[in-house]
Amino acid sequence: MRATRSLGRRGAVTFLNRIPIRVKLTLAFTGVMALVLAATGLLLYLRFADELDASIEKSLAARVDDVAVRLSSEGEPEGQELAEEGLSFVQILDPSGRVLDGAAPLDEPVLTSQDIARAGAGETTFERASRPSAEGDDLRLLARPVEADAMSFIVVAGASLEERDDALESLETLLLIGGPLSLLLASAAGYGVASAALRPVDSMRRRAGGISDTDLGRRLPVPPARDEISRLGETLNAMLSRLESAFVRERAFVSDASHELRTPLAILRAELELALRRGRSVEELEAAIRSALEETDRLARLADDLLLLARSDEGRLSISRKAVDVDDLLETVRARFAARAGESGRTIEVTGPGDSRLTGDPLRLEQALASLVDNALRHSEGAIRLSARPEAGSVELHVIDEGPGFSPAMADRAFERFSRADDGRTGGGTGLGLAIVQAIARAHGGDAHVGRRDGGADVWLALPGLDEREDRKPAASEPSRVPSQS
After folding, report:
1. Which tens digits make up the pLDDT trace of 244-263?
2. I need a labelling partner for 45 at 20 to 30 A (CA). Which of 184, 329, 396, 434 fits?
3. Domain residues for 260?
4. d(CA 306, CA 311)
């Protein structure tokens, strides 16, 4: 039984989920309107009934006042003077309940002994099922004690409720007919409004269905009204623009990667073919093999770089966070490239304030700084300076050279993948070095920057400073959460 009820609930939910939105809105609007119309009709009916009852009671009170005045001035009036045919009647009773005079038959008091006792204590209203000597008419009675000529009387005025009941019945019929008609018209209007409101969504859906990877430049139509649907269209168009840019970058990335792979593979093939020719000397074979090994190393580095960037795009670039002494980090990078710099008559210096620390992966940070120093050795001249600059809550690691620097155009796209420097910074490489530097910086919660200066370039990593809580924790490897760079 429980399984049956669960299946029934899931079936109902599935059915509701399949109903179009405009139908759901119409049903919701119809339900609310039905409640509003029902409540309004009920309040109107009750209000109208109260007004009719108040009018009848006011009329009865006026009749009682008139009879009381006559009793005080003229004594007991004649019955024919008390009658109002079809509207009301009056009886004058003594305290014992005996009929003294009135428009109704004198021997038929309209009040019981209990009613007379209540009426003697003060003005009281009663309901009766029928009028004396009549069939089927409901009555409203008003009884009030009256003192005249040292005598006590009870004046009873009554009126038929037939006209009141007829008026209420007419109102009820009108509400029962007009209510459903009004609800039907309101539902049709609600469906029309919902359809009109969702028409821009249908237009967006049709346009979106026609967008493919060959025409990513198309955009969704945005209605002129500044409403939620308009903002939805603008948001979707902005998303399409980002997707188009990412798709264009992805195509360029694949094209550039294919080009970069093609060159070393072609060289490697040529060297191997050369080595296979007959009549090659040992020296020529060794040179061919060395060249092939160099191209193989280049292919391996390129594959490693592409894998690192792919992991960065997926947010899976693992870093091992721990406290890092910045001076030791810079000195390690300097010592690594000191011999290479000395071969070309250049120097690498470490400057800046000491005792700087940050939280990060020393191997990844060394990789990023090494890429910057390698880039400086390739494309610049003179001394290279490594420095650390503590900032508010962060540490900047700078690599400054004395070369021609970055051109404005190159500075804007320095961290793009496979970007090449202009004539001022020509040389080898795959164009992935700075992109990898930025990926490592973002994996640490920071970023990489390029600065222009007179007589050289300044490239730096802005990284979060040391978190004392991290300093007390053991090193932990965790995937980075960096924005996609595709």
Report:
1. 887 877 777 676 667 667 76
2. 184
3. 228-310
4. 9
